[in-house]
Design brief:
The protein is of the alpha/beta class and 333 residues long. Helix content is 35%, strand content 16%. The chain binds phosphoenolpyruvate (PEP) and manganese (II) ion.
Length: 333
Amino acid sequence: MKPGAPQNEAAHIIQELEKQKLKPVPLYGVERTVIAVIGEERDLNIGHLEAMPGVEKVMRVVEPYKLVSKNTKKEPTIIEVNGVKIGSSQIAAIAGPCAVESEEQMESVMKDLSKTGIKIVRAGAFKPRTDPYSFQGLGSQGLKILRETADRHSMATITEVLDTRDVEMVCEFSDMIQIGARNMQNFSLLKEVGTTKKPILLKRGMGATVEELLLAAEYILSKGNPNVILCERGIRTFEKETRNTLALATVPLVKELSHLPIIVDPTHATGKRSLIEPMTKAAIAAGADGFIIEVHPNPEAALSDAQQQLTPQQFSELMKNLQPIIAAVNKTI
Ligand code: PEP
Ligand code: MN
């Protein structure tokens, strides 16, 4: 729509598109409204639409993804969680243990993380484990512990959902929802979280291309939830020294293709404590909107991912050491 076009003109276009059996998805920006249209291109009468009042331009989007494309919306999407503006010039720092293990563990880690200025805490209540006999997470009890301890420290929470049947419950307890790498193409789950309004952290599948990642995000947006944050967490390659291979070019590439924020998970990307700080610095230098790092009060005793979690002390050092990089890219934290 033209900048400043009145709402009723946009509403008229939406009505017209619906009449043509197309699916209009309006994106209300500060300056202008963009109406994305989903459906068969042959059903769209471009000339007719272009002549309607308030319309500036009608164009085809050639990428298979439309709502997440930068062609549809030029301004970056900013998602605010507990005062952290993810996608802005503020670096979003998310930290916490791999899994919720006990009230004492969560209380202890949150106390330390809040001293470091962390506003969003991560911890899994449902863990996607390769081995069915290893710790699967505390489930609903874990969600409760996460919520109660986070509230005591005025923290927002992010936790993973594995199953469509748990989406409602997880939404009740957590401020943000994580879709893990193993579920990036679980289309029922993507559609289900798309019907909520929660910010969704969508992690790249370990064998997924960037286009597949963006199409997975498209599933969520097309169901009506625009609050998606992408996450590069490394992909599987022939390299065995690191748990995964951190594909950092994804960050500037996604910035060219999409308006959605993208953060980096250097923990799962490397699987090695010593590599986390250098790769966090590199992620910030590459233009990432933030990072998510595993921190455990006593990593050696962790029930999952013991070898890659930082101690609160190591994490606080890392936060200090990031400062010059954050300043160099003209951002704040
Ligand atoms: C996690 O964040 O704990 C996790 C399981 O990550 P990923 O889905 O990236 O492997
Ligand atoms: Mn983990």
